[in-house]
Amino acid sequence: MTALLEVEDLRVAYGKIEAVKGISFSVEAGQVVTLIGTNGAGKTTTLRTLSGLLKPLAGTVRFEGETLTGTPAHKIVKLGLAHSPEGRHIFPRLTITENLQLGAFLRKDAAGIDKDIQRAYDLFPILGERRGQAAGTLSGGEQQMLAMGRALMSRPKLLMLDEPSMGLSPIMMQKIMHTIRELKSNGTTILLVEQNAQAALSLADCGHVMEIGKIVLSGTGQDLLHDESVRKAYLGED
Ligand SMILES: Nc1ncnc2c1ncn2[C@@H]1O[C@H](COP(=O)(O)OP(=O)(O)OP(=O)(O)O)[C@@H](O)[C@H]1O
Ligand SMILES: [Mg+2]
After folding, report:
1. Which residue's alpha carbon is nearest to atom 31 within ligand 1?
2. Which residue intervals define the domain ABC transporter in the entry (predicted)?
3. What average pLDDT does this structure show over 110-126?
4. Ligand 1, residues 12, 16, 18, 39: which to mutate, most atoms within 8 A of Cβ?
5. What class has domain 1-80+159-164+189-237?
6. Band of residue 238 on the pLDDT scale cut at 50, 70, 90
């Protein structure tokens, strides 16, 4: 069986700085795969390349067997790959409903879009309660929920989340992690980038540890959670 997403020897540079130095990994349909690693390891660069926002120097990305190299970002969304970016990037002056509608900008099925907006409200009731409010008035955690809800509006086959727990209180973080589990049990495939290694590895089928542009360790979520070097470097243990 071919994986949903296959990344082979991907290299990405900003000018002369090579931020991703030849990484390979794959994501099978139905899995949650996580990329963890310290600041500047190249996680965001990897996601931005997969969604077509950055051009790789070299390497191959295949989605459902189709090579994505050179495919523009909007076509990649259409193929079924959605990205909830680091730092959220919601539209603060637009309402919550309008932000969600923008996530469906490539769809034409009005009834289906309304149904999925309702689904986002079921997933995150606070968004439903505040639907007519400007998104900029939401708290950080609520904006994170909106960013996830918006990414889901394209009905993605693969949802990429870049640090969904960033800046959130422990309770908000638990809520977000719970939602990721819920999405997984509904069959959504997820590529999760997280600083919170404990939370990410606990729910991931498979994880990769990145350090300065390379994958230095891979395993199941449970294996990595119990790996001594991971515990020392990422889980704050001596
Ligand atoms: N637009 C840019 N121009 C130049 N260098 C960049 C740019 N964006 C990122 N970098 C560099 O590329 C490297 C990887 O950055 P990236 O944002 O992918 O890391 P990250 O793993 O997502 O880190 P974090 O956990 O802090 O979000 C870093 O050294 C960073 O300084
Ligand atoms: Mg990042």
Report:
1. 40
2. 5-237
3. 93
4. 39
5. alpha beta
6. low
